[in-house]
């Protein structure tokens, strides 16, 4: 590109006018003059040249010529050498060999200075000769981290970074952070086939921790490629013994199967899930997975207050005392705010105990029977509210002649899953069967509950559009709730609009079983395993990035707490299969450890005699096989973040012109100030020569 400019402060239009004026003046001066021979042609030219030089001295022109010069820039080539690059295509050629073929066939690399690097778990620079001996042996892909490290290492020293990979990077990248570190464009070449025959056990979902006597649910999500959805067989094993076998069913993006196992004993138990190998399956290392379940034997502390020795109280008291996992305490109102203990464990009641949060925090669940709340003080009701919202406790309010009476306008009203209208204490005597409501979220209390035996008394109430979830309805009518629970961030408040469930207890063996099942489910729903263990308050919620790690990879552990936590200082540790433990040291709620060998590892926390566990598995491949197909979406994002382009291997020849571009070079020619000492004498000589020649011709 050619550019012309000048360094004079005089406007350009004035210079053009001046040059045109001087030229016209010279033409006018010589028009009537007659010279002989050559002098007629050269004298005006000589005069005009002197004037042009004089103008150039005034404007100081600068001429810039920009050219693109072809140079041999550095091209940093990053080759993935993780295990997934050893997968072979239909021709029997591995992905790493395909990458080598690509580098050998591209002629435009000759016009550059390629620098080769390998990326698996670490970034390593290698020579061109070493490419032939590379093997796909790295335990896990860390492509995004390798690109970031390479960008920091080379800075702007290079035309681009070219990445050859299948995109099997299990670590969620920090795309924004990566974008800030990149100073050279990143181009990606996708190696491998996006679709090939494979079944991969993508995720195992377990309801852990779970109470002893409940059911363990293990959900297996399988990613299928090249096979019809579902159809494959899947097995649940423990200690190499097959417990159950099922067939995968299609659930959209994944195929799915669920296993249910009774939690018969307390402890930590390991299960294996195995998908049957399919004909011509390309990879079988990703067909198995481990699941760990923590089974808790609780002692749920319950404070039960009622307004009298009614039938509902008597039979519920009998059941609570018979359940070995419950530790109940019973109080019956004898007048005003006076209560008398009527059974259960011995209890030392402080003065005005219902207003004492420190007293209420000693229980997991508070049951309020047929009580008239007009006798409660605002301080007592506020303490009950805070017991749920601040301390994560469970609260149940039972039906009867005084159902929810006196709660309107109190601190407890906002916690209720009921829109108080004033008629909740009214009792309807009509036969009905409580039925499980249709809910949009998982509720353990309702799983397999079905329709319950008939009742004859209920309290009508209405659930607000927001803040409440109906659990049971009258004969399946969603407009007539029988039981509802609030949707508070922590803790649960439940209302049961009947005082008639005691009838089930003596109606027959099957009804008695449903009675015990109903109240057992309800209590364990109000105080679930996580609430009982105090996860988020006494014990931290243990957050792990993933469950599968490669050998040598650090396992990052973060702690999460609910508002108001932690209560105390729990010990957090990791434990191997031999039972050896090592304590983790945290800084800003984060820590990490590197497992020394392959196997199953527990990450746990313990405090006040209670523990919680998460698990990880460590193997040579880590999570390398979780999604072994070419990840086009991930590679497109990588190239987009790096300001480059992504092409699949079969169409990657188009990178040549972009990678082999030259450097821009500008040549400048200017009339600088030092040149005046040479041009001024030249102008002076030219003008004097013109004057001399004109005088000789007799022209002034």
Automatic annotation (TrEMBL):
Q: Which UniProt keywords apply?
A: Membrane, Transmembrane, Transmembrane helix
- InterPro entries recorded for this chain? Class_I_gatase-like (IPR029062), vWFA_dom_sf (IPR036465)
Spans through the membrane: 12-30, 42-59
Gene3D superfamilies assigned to the protein according to its UniProt record, in alphabetical order: 3.40.50.880, von Willebrand factor, type A domain
Q: What is this protein called?
A: VWFA domain-containing protein
Q: Which organism is it from?
A: candidate division TA06 bacterium ADurb.Bin417
């Amino acid at each position: 590109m050619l550019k012309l400019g000048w360094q004079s402060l005089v406007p350009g239009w004035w210079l053009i006018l001046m040059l045109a004026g001087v030229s016209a003046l010279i033409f006018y001066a010589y028009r009537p003059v007659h010279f002989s021979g050559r002098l007629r042609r050269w004298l005006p030219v000589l005069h005009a040249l002197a004037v042009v030089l004089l103008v150039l001295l005034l404007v100081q022109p600068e001429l810039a010529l920009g050219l693109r010069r072809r140079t041999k820039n550095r091209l940093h080539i990053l080759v993935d050498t993780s295990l997934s690059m050893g997968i072979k295509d239909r021709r029997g050629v591995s992905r790493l060999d395909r990458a080598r073929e690509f580098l050998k066939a591209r002629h435009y690399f000759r016009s550059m200075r390629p620098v080769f690097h390998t990326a698996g778990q670490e970034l390593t620079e290698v020579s061109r000769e070493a490419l032939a001996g590379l093997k796909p042996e790295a335990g896990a892909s860390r492509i995004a981290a390798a690109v970031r490290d390479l960008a920091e290492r080379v800075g702007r020293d290079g035309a681009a970074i070219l990445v050859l990979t299948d995109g099997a990077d299990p670590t969620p990248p920090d795309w924004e952070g990566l974008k800030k570190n990149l100073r050279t464009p990143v181009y990606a070449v996708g190696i491998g086939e996006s679709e090939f025959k494979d079944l991969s056990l993508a995720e195992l979902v377990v309801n852990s921790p779970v109470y002893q006597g409940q059911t363990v649910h293990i959900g297996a999500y399988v990613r299928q490629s090249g096979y019809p959805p579902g159809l494959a067989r899947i097995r649940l094993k423990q200690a190499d013994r097959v417990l159950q076998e099922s067939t995968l069913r299609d659930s959209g993006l994944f195929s799915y199967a669920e296993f249910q196992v009774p939690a018969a004993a307390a402890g930590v138990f390991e299960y294996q899930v195995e998908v049957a190998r399919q004909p011509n399956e390309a990879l079988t290392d990703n067909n198995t997975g481990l699941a760990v379940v923590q089974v808790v034997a609780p002692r749920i502390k319950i404070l039960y207050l009622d307004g009298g020795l009614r039938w509902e109280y008597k039979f519920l008291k009998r059941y609570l005392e018979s359940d070995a996992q419950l530790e109940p305490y019973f109080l019956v109102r004898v007048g005003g705010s006076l209560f008398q203990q009527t059974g259960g464990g011995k209890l030392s009641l402080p003065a005005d105990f219902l207003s004492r949060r420190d007293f209420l925090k000693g229980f997991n669940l508070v049951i309020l029977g047929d009580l008239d709340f007009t006798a409660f003080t605002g301080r007592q009701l506020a303490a009950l509210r805070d017991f749920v919202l601040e301390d994560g406790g469970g609260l149940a309010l039972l039906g009867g002649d005084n159902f929810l009476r006196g709660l309107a306008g109190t601190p407890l009203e906002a916690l209720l899953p009921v829109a108080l209208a004033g008629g909740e204490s009214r009792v309807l005597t009509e036969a009905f069967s409580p039925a499980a409501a249709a809910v949009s979220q998982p509720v353990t209390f309702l799983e397999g509950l079905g329709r319950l035996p008939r009742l004859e008394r209920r309290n009508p109430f209405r659930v607000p559009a927001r803040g409440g979830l109906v659990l049971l309805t009258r004969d399946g009518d969603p407009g007539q709730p029988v039981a509802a629970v609030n949707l508070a961030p922590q803790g649960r408040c439940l209302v049961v609009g009947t005082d008639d469930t005691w009838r089930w207890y003596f109606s027959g063996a099957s009804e008695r079983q449903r009675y015990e099942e109903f109240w057992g489910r309800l209590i364990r729903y109000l105080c679930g395993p996580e609430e009982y263990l105090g996860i988020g308050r006494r014990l931290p919620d243990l957050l792990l990035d993933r469950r599968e790690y490669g050998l040598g990879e650090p396992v990052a552990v973060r702690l999460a707490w609910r508002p108001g936590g932690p209560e105390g200082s729990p010990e957090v540790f990791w434990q191997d299969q031999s039972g050896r433990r090592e304590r983790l040291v945290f800084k800003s709620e984060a820590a990490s450890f590197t497992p020394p060998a392959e196997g199953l590892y527990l990450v746990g926390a313990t405090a006040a005699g209670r523990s919680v566990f998460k698990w990880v598995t460590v193997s040579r491949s880590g999570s390398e096989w979780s999604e072994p197909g070419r990840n086009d979406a991930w590679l497109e994002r990588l190239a987009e973040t790096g300001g480059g382009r992504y092409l699949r291997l079969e169409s990657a020849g188009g990178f040549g012109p972009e990678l082999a571009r030259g450097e821009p070079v500008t040549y400048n020619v200017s009339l600088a100030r030092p040149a005046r000492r040479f041009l001024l004498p030249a102008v002076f000589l030219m003008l004097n020569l013109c004057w001399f020649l004109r005088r000789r011709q007799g022209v002034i």
